[in-house]
Design goal:
Length: 101
């Protein structure tokens, strides 16, 4: 029997347009000190990545389930509507298999 080491790297976007794309494997809840959601993705290259959610990511990924193909793009720091704070902005995509893609 052949074994392959399981290695999960943490994805943390650093610059605008950093992205992760692949198959959503698992969602864990109440993780860590802040009781965040943690997402696990297998990329198109076969690497396994994890990342923490945010209000924006959690809301948008609530429409996805394990097995869905997703893409998340970091759009940089944005100013809140009230101008009092900034937040990390992301675009979240789900593959639309209905179009044969």
């Amino acid at each position: 029997m052949a074994y392959k080491e399981i290695s999960v790297k943490f994805w943390r976007p650093e610059k605008e347009n950093d992205s992760v794309e692949g198959t959503l494997l698992k969602v864990s809840e109440d993780v860590g000190k802040f009781k965040s959601k943690s997402y696990f993705v297998e990329t198109v290259e076969g690497a396994q990545l994890s990342f923490f959610g945010s209000v924006l990511i959690d809301d948008r990924l609530s429409f996805c389930k394990p097995g869905d193909k997703i893409k998340i793009v970091f759009k940089g720091r944005k100013q809140s509507e009230d101008g009092k704070s900034t937040y990390n902005d992301f675009q979240v995509f789900k593959d639309d298999m209905k179009n044969g893609n």
